[in-house]
Please model this.
Amino acid sequence: MTSLTGKRSISLSRIAIYAVLIVAVLLYLVPLVVMLLT
Model:
């Protein structure tokens, strides 16, 4: 059980890190795209 919970926590932490990175990239790219389009 400990191994399963450990794997789940690691996967959740990875998903959280990837989600934060994706949000940061979107927040950085959206203004650039808006500036280019306008």
Remarks:
- The chain is about 95% helix and 0% strand.
